Amino acid sequence: MNTHIEQLYRSAKKRSRVIIGLMSGTSLDGLDVALCRIEGQGTDTQIALLEFCTVDYDDNYKQKIKSVFAQRQVDLQQVTLLNPWIGVLHGQMINQCLAKWGVDASDIDAIASHGQTIYHCPLRQHGQSEFGNGTLQIGDADHLAVTTGILTVADFRQKHIAAGGEGAPLAVYGDYLFFTSRQENRILLNMGGIANLTYLPLTADSSAVFSSDIGPGNTIMDAYVQKHFAPLHYDKDSAIARQGEIHTGLLEALKQHEFFTLDFPKTTGPEVFNLRYLMDAQQRTNTQALAPQDVMATLNFFSAHVIAQAINDCAGNLADFSVYASGGGIHNPLLMEHILSLCPRVSIIEDTSKLGINPDAKEAVLFAILANECLVGGQQTFGNITQGIPNITMGKISFPD
Ligand SMILES: Nc1ncnc2c1ncn2[C@@H]1O[C@H](COP(=O)(O)OP(=O)(O)OP(=O)(O)O)[C@@H](O)[C@H]1O
Ligand SMILES: CC(=O)N[C@H]1[C@@H]2OC[C@@H](O2)[C@@H](O)[C@@H]1O[C@H](C)C(=O)O
């Protein structure tokens, strides 16, 4: 048998696999590295998070990604060079983590690499009917595999689009396997650069499950802080927003976007919700001279408003439900206070540690689950494609040799 097929076969026959999940999100803060032991597959999946760390990106990395990130016109040579460069860098970061944890590469079955999204554009957004939905993640998996010596599963989003989805959110595939409960309706809320949610009914009826992006989580706040409060990268503990006052005129202008009127499921990114979006709203309301602290207070409330509205819409007329949060937004206390104040039916928002998953690691763990499904699982069955969740497994496989 071909040695690569043999390797896959051996791995698939094992009772459990050790998989490193990687996530590098829209916040460009660092690479999340989750070392997971995964037993079984499908609804029998059991996960143990053995180690987790975020390897911070240095300014050089951030600057290089920003030069091509979420922009319609970029230097194509730079994109071509960044693709392998990120692959090698992510590989080196994994090697560092393994050395720190005292784990040998030969003990790892696979790396599950999300890569770095540099552009996301559903058809609704680009509006060119001859093209479909599009999304692009770079950080080549062959380079990761060769740098680490570990089989790498990557580029998960293309299959989702090929099968009729928008390429996101993929969280639902992991959330459904891991967080479905027979005791309560659950809303899993992730607040990264972009916020998204997954609805898991207590009936566990997979055809009623859905997942959707919500709109801006931290992305506009982060971009504003980086521009007006450099060298800060984000509004740590809401310190800046707390000093300001919400400007209701600007807030109303920020709320005016077609995206918020669309039904779930839908996806978006910093291609839409960025500093230009804020500047347009400031121009329309003549608030260009507003104190930066007031702008931050308004942006914080704006994110809370869109997130709360999505929770309230998702909950609809459910008699009872619980919300479990993850992503960097949970560390923004003012944002959390606002969300609670805007969701009268929610008395507490727990984070996913209550369900056994470190909230900062959740997305990296998700990709480990997706890689496990790619290697040994079968297709999950959800309702139908109108919910944006095609019945597929995702990921492409790169061998180190
Ligand atoms: N102590 C804190 N106070 C305020 N905000 C914080 C704090 N810690 C983290 N954050 C926010 O969380 C962000 C990082 O979130 P996260 O790592 O979930 O993003 P991401 O994975 O890049 O996003 P996405 O899910 O959109 O891809 C930071 O940029 C910051 O805005
Ligand atoms: C195209 C892309 O990278 N989208 C990300 C982004 O970050 C949050 C939100 O927008 C979500 O849709 C998605 O990531 C998560 C992991 C997902 O697919 O579930």
UniProtKB/TrEMBL annotation:
Pathway: Cell wall biogenesis; peptidoglycan recycling; Amino-sugar metabolism; 1,6-anhydro-N-acetylmuramate degradation. It catalyses: 1,6-anhydro-N-acetyl-beta-muramate + ATP + H2O = N-acetyl-D-muramate 6-phosphate + ADP + H(+). Its EC number is 2.7.1.170. The keyword ATP-binding applies. The keyword GTP-binding does not apply. Pfam families: AnmK. Keywords: ATP-binding, Carbohydrate metabolism, Kinase, Nucleotide-binding, Transferase. One of its GO terms (biological process) is peptidoglycan turnover. ATP binds at residues 25-32. GO terms for molecular function: ATP binding; kinase activity; phosphotransferase activity, alcohol group as acceptor. It comes from the Bacteria. InterPro entries: Anhydro_N_Ac-Mur_kinase (IPR005338), ATPase_NBD (IPR043129). It is an enzyme of class 2 (transferase). Belongs to the anhydro-N-acetylmuramic acid kinase family. Catalyzes the specific phosphorylation of 1,6-anhydro-N-acetylmuramic acid (anhMurNAc) with the simultaneous cleavage of the 1,6-anhydro ring, generating MurNAc-6-P. Is required for the utilization of anhMurNAc either imported from the medium or derived from its own cell wall murein, and thus plays a role in cell wall recycling. This is Anhydro-N-acetylmuramic acid kinase. It comes from Paraglaciecola polaris LMG 21857.
